[in-house]
Design a protein that fits this description.
The protein is an alpha+beta fold. It is built from five helices and 22 strands.
């Protein structure tokens, strides 16, 4: 018989080996299954918790996670596939899963896997209703060139927009600036890889994607207020390969993932440079038919865009604002829903879209898929394709001899293909402005298709979101018409 002292020592050692690690509230902990003994965790008492799991490495088999909220006692059995009272499985999708519920007596979390090589994963406990690990709104593709791309995150914070009120009807200046930067910003990371790479088969989680190498180089990252939805992170990438498919994710604070979105770089023959970061046209982030940027620059911004182009545009906004300010814009609104500030904002967006044309090119899969010029009076901007159910973008070839849409545009000196603005850009402005301004948008019955892409977002008859695509662009890299 073993001495009593040795029995006590063995008993203490066994109990220590079986003690579960307690998870910490409102934090993320990282683990590897090869170093778990036992493969379960203690969850502290809390009225309500969001438990989230993120796989951080590729596994040979799909692991399963189970949670129970009866007790966190070491004598309580691990929750598992056999079920039982208050045992719940956390469903995993693309390496991410979460479960929210009450833990009045604490609880347990267990992991089960047949992967002998082991794998790493993160666990987060949130006392808010929002899990620490989650998928968030998709990022936004500005545009690409043959070797560049501009990508923006989803909005992460709102900013104050002063609304004119009686007797002060002051509207934003024509040459307005960006709103003051936010006091704090989340940590935003852009991950871009060639779509053909195996990254698309791995977990779509922050801890896994953060370990991947971004293709190309990030020349610039900045906070940008593109529209009234709020602040975004904006990235300018270079060093990409022409005519190549890419996949992009945005990671926020290491745990929240937006994406993927997909895009294709233009062909090597595409020469239109990117234009972005224009405070007076904050929605502009695309390529334009301009000569190469000045020496030392890889794109155009407000700092180097020709004043011969920007001065007339700003002057138009100033003149329109002056006319608009003669109307009672505050207490005496002309609409219970809209004010002069809405009208000015939508006029600015429309003017930027039609004054700063966007370059593009037909899909390599259908190089002849573009709008004929000149368009018929009843044209919609959509051309029938020989391929059933295929929707073509509102592309118009522009020859060198053709007069520019904007007379102040510098000469490009070569043909290019323009992407027409969406007709909705004009209609939104029309709905936001008072009748006395005299805005008249074309209709599909007459000549709208000569200047706009029609029937994509709204139907040709004007049914909201009843068009062929319901949107100007999608997450797969299709851009049908231009909307700033």
């Amino acid at each position: 018989m073993l001495p009593e002292s040795l029995l006590c020592l063995l008993s203490a050692t066994f109990a220590f080996a079986q003690a579960r690690q307690q998870l910490t509230l409102d934090s993320v902990a990282s683990f590897n299954t090869l170093r778990l003994n036992p493969p379960s965790f203690s969850i502290p008492q809390e009225e309500r918790l969001a438990v989230s799991i993120a796989l951080c490495s590729v596994t040979s088999s799909q692991p399963r996670f189970f949670v129970s909220n009866i007790s966190n006692s070491d004598g309580q059995s691990d929750p598992g596939p056999a079920g039982g009272t208050n045992v719940f499985e956390i469903k995993m999708v693309d390496g991410l899963g979460s479960w929210t519920g009450g833990f009045p007596n604490g609880g347990l979390l267990s992991v089960q896997s047949s992967d002998s090589d082991g794998f790493s994963f993160d666990v987060g406990l949130s006392t808010n209703a929002e899990p620490l690990h989650q998928n968030i709104t998709l990022p936004f593709l500005g545009d690409t060139t043959s070797n560049q791309a501009i990508v923006l995150s989803a909005p992460f914070a709102k900013f104050d927009i002063p609304v004119p009120s009686y007797p002060n009807y002051t509207l934003p200046a024509a040459n307005m600036s960006q709103p003051p930067p936010p006091s704090s910003t989340p940590n935003m990371t852009l991950i871009v890889t060639e779509t053909s790479r195996a990254i698309t088969g791995g977990p779509r989680t922050g801890c896994f994607l953060s370990s991947q190498t971004t293709t190309g180089a990030i020349d610039e990252q900045m906070v940008w207020a593109r529209d009234i939805l709020g602040y975004r992170s904006q990235w300018l990438l270079s060093g990409l390969t022409p005519s190549t498919n890419y996949t992009a994710f945005v990671i926020q604070d290491s745990t929240k993932v937006s994406g993927p979105i997909y895009f294709t770089t233009k062909s090597a023959a595409f020469l239109c440079p990117l234009v972005h970061s224009l405070p007076f046209c904050p929605g502009v982030a695309y390529s334009m038919p301009l000569p190469a940027p000045p020496a030392g620059s890889t794109s155009y911004t407000a700092a180097n865009l020709p004043s011969t182009l920007t001065d007339p545009l700003i002057s138009y906004i100033a003149n329109f604002t002056h006319v608009l300010s003669t109307f009672a814009c505050g207490r005496d609104w002309y609409s219970p829903l809209k004010g002069c500030d809405d009208c000015q904002r939508e006029y600015r967006r429309w003017l930027c879209a039609v004054s700063l044309p966007r370059c593009s090119e037909a899909s390599p899969a259908n190089p002849d898929g573009f709008t004929s010029v000149p368009a018929e009076p009843s044209a919609t901007g959509i051309v029938a394709s020989k391929v059933a159910q295929q929707v073509l973008s509102a592309l118009v070839p522009v020859e060198t001899r053709d007069p520019p849409r904007n007379e102040f545009m510098p000469e490009l000196g070569q043909p290019y293909t323009a992407l027409l603005p969406c007709l909705e850009q004009c209609n939104i402005m029309d709905r936001a402005c008072p009748p006395f301004v005299g805005i008249k948008c074309p209709t599909s019955t007459f000549n709208a298709g000569a200047s706009y892409g029609v029937g994509y977002i709204d139907s040709a008859d004007g049914d909201e979101f009843g068009g062929l695509t319901g949107t100007a662009q999608d997450r797969w890299g299709n851009v049908w018409c231009q909307l700033v």
